[in-house]
Design a protein that fits this description.
four-stranded antiparallel beta sheet; flat; mainly beta; 2 helices; Aspartate Aminotransferase, domain 1
Length: 274
């Protein structure tokens, strides 16, 4: 389900109102003045936050992507995990503990971070200033970020200010407040000159260059020139763009499908250009 489909579903519910009380980056939906869903429009990955009944929230919080359910618990200021019968899977001994990703979770103790497996065994020593668990593990050490594997071998040296995620063999990386793309050896293959980057999909990525949004290919060449104030990718490869404070629609080559004449991105109609 994409953002447009979420929006249409919310507005189909009785007495639902749409608003942007926090600026252009957020859309909220409410009933009777009470917000039940947020959409973060500028998230690298489409992101929503939903208000749930307490019992439903508790049920969903137990699901970590495995066949059985588990719950993260806090006891005397320390975190661990229990199963559905209340038995400890991981004793509550950490200052913080993350959700599991493919069987692994980040943990913190005394200001240092590492990684455990679902049996609670430490697989990455608690010696880092921060970790982020994914297909490979992002580590922070002395304010610099890099990647290691689950055998604690260095994949990318910790020398970057910020890192994204690998997609189509490339990963966004920031140094000196500029973003570029590195390969799996940690070498820049697209020089760091952008204000913001995302993740490549089908050989292209949206970027911000000198304050304007555009699209580049995997060689770092602009396929859509950076001239838009804002830009969002649609599910069919089109882009909604903001030009001179008006919204319109372009295709993946930058050709106009709908002229920029709309005050709201939500009012721009979708067009099938096939």
């Amino acid at each position: 389900m994409n953002i447009e489909e979420v929006r249409k579903y919310c507005l189909s519910l009785p007495d639902t109102e749409e608003a942007m009380p926090y600026g252009e980056d957020w859309v909220v939906f409410r009933v009777g003045g009470k917000i039940f869903l947020h959409i973060w429009l500028e998230a690298p990955i489409p992101t929503i936050a939903v208000k749930l009944l307490p019992e439903r929230g508790e049920e969903l919080s137990r699901w970590d992507g495995y066949e059985d359910f588990r719950a993260r618990v806090k006891l005397d200021g320390k975190y661990g995990y229990i199963d559905t019968k209340g038995n400890y899977l991981i004793e509550p001994k950490y200052d913080s503990i993350g959700y599991f990703y493919d069987g692994f979770a980040s943990v913190e103790l005394n200001g240092k971070y590492g990684v455990i497996n679902q049996e609670g065994k430490i697989v990455i020593d608690l010696k880092y200033d921060g970790v982020r668990v994914g297909k490979i593990v992002e580590t922070t050490l002395d304010f610099k970020k890099g990647f290691i594997d689950l055998e604690q071998n260095i994949v990318v040296e910790p020398k970057f200010d910020e890192l994204g995620d690998f997609s189509e063999e490339l990963c966004g990386a920031s140094i000196n407040d500029k973003w570029g793309y590195i390969n799996k050896q940690g070498v820049f293959v697209i020089e760091p000159k952008f204000d913001e980057v995302g993740n490549f999909k089908n050989g292209i990525d949206m970027v911000v260059f000198k304050g304007k949004c555009g699209v580049i290919n995997i060689q770092g060449e602009f396929v859509i020139e950076p001239k838009f104030k804002s830009m969002s990718a649609e599910y069919n490869g089109h882009f909604k763009v903001l030009l001179d404070d008006k919204w319109g629609l372009i295709d993946e080559r930058g050709n106009w499908l709908v002229p920029a004449t709309y005050d709201s991105r939500w009012d721009v109609p979708e067009v099938d250009d096939k």
